[in-house]
Design a protein that fits this description.
Elements lengths: L8 E3 L3 H6 L6 E6 L6 H12 L2 E6 L2 H11 L7 E5 L1 H9 L3 E2 L4 H6 L12 E13 L22 E2 L6 H14 L1 H13 L9 H10 L4 E5 H9 L13 E4 L9 E10 L5 H11 L2 H9 L4 E2 L8 H4 L11 H5 L2 H11 L3
Parallel strand pairs: 2-3, 2-4, 7-8
Antiparallel strand pairs: 1-3, 4-10, 5-10, 6-8, 6-9, 6-10, 6-11
Helix pairs in contact: 6-7, 6-14, 7-14
The protein binds fe (iii) ion (FE).
């Protein structure tokens, strides 16, 4: 494969140091596309509890997967942590992960949030839900299906089809309703766009505040984070007039996406890698891992942060996410067919 030119951020230790000490005892080489400050505490607590030092390389998921492929058998990577099931599944398909046997993970992580072959496990979840401007929308859509209703023509904002959140959402609609219904839905949805797809989830929320959008779809954690702290002018005050709907509560439930990880195919420190994933499933780590980024814990019974609790209780879609990830190529076909940029 072609060598990718990447702009990876190297943290804690230089990449060269990782390569030269990859097989040393008491180490763990973590490739992560999560880059939240709160994850720091997670890593330092793990080191304190186990004596295992974490060397970390951060980058975007596709770069990290390409890097692991290029490094092949010599890869120092022990763990890949990333976001969204379709990326976890892409890593699996690329052969950069391996199956592991862990009673702890089997017991703690629900079956719907792990790969059937145990190559990846989800550690936190986000719901992809409907937000709307309360002064413009009196009858908000209650389901994903409703978002394609012509009643909402010119009102809806969403990000581009090149983004994994769009891909996984449509993949879930295919899994729940079939490819034909998903195509019809996507056509109606695109017809309702208020503007060309653009920006990230925070930009969809900003579109509501600016008035450019009446209805936006975003992952819960972007909203919860802005409630908790100012995100470049997006804050609790700016969002005061924004309502939200957990979709499909009388149907399949709210679409969830995952943050998760797996053990690298050629992990030099395999045992440490398994220990680390088991640690991520502990109550304490679940609290940091999820609350630190305003996400929902994967492990049942772990408390959620106040900002997330503000959104209220809901029924999540419990569709098997590894099945959903397999529909990404079919989703791509739909994007082309309906002209979702
Ligand atoms: Fe995100």
């Amino acid at each position: 494969m072609r060598q990718t030119t990447t702009a990876l951020i190297v943290c804690a230790t230089a990449a060269t140091a990782i390569a030269s000490s990859a097989a040393a005892e008491g180490e763990l080489n973590l490739y992560s596309s999560r880059h939240y400050d709160t994850d720091e505490r997670l890593y330092s607590d793990f080191t304190e509890a186990t004596g295992i030092t974490i060397n970390r390389i951060e980058g975007n998921a596709d770069e990290l997967i390409a890097r692991m492929e290029a490094e092949g058998a010599n890869s120092p990577a022990d763990i890949l942590l990333t976001v969204d099931t379709s990326r976890l599944e892409r890593a699996k398909d690329a052969g950069v992960l391996q199956a592991i046997d862990s009673e702890v993970l089997e017991m703690r992580i629900p079956a719907s949030l792990q790969d059937a072959d145990n190559q990846w496990f989800g550690f936190s979840q986000r719901a992809r839900i409907i937000f709307y401007d309360k002064s413009d929308v009196t009858e908000p859509p209650l389901t994903y299906v409703d978002l394609a209703d012509p009643a909402y023509e010119g009102m809806v904002c969403h990000r581009s089809s090149t983004n994994v959140y769009s891909q996984t959402l449509v993949s879930a609609i295919i899994e729940n309703h079939g490819a034909d219904a998903a195509t019809t839905w996507a056509q109606g949805f695109v017809n309702n766009f208020a503007r060309d797809p653009q920006g990230g989830d925070t930009d969809q929320l900003r579109g509501l505040v600016s008035g450019e959008c009446d209805i936006s779809i975003s992952n819960t954690y972007y909203f919860a984070r802005a409630l908790r702290k100012d995100v470049d002018g997006l804050n609790a005050e700016a969002l005061a007039n924004i309502g939200w709907v957990f979709p499909a509560q009388n149907a399949e439930g709210a679409h969830m996406n995952l943050s998760g990880g797996g053990v690298a195919a050629n992990a030099p420190n395999r045992e440490n890698a398994i220990k680390f994933l088991e640690y991520l499933a502990s109550d304490q780590a679940q609290e940091y891992f999820s609350a630190g980024n305003d996400e929902y814990p994967a492990v049942a019974g772990v408390g959620i942060s106040p900002s997330v609790a503000t959104l209220g209780m809901f029924r999540p879609d419990s569709v098997d996410l590894s099945k959903v990830a397999k529909n990404v190529p079919a989703a791509q076909t739909i994007f082309n067919e309906v002209g979702w940029e």
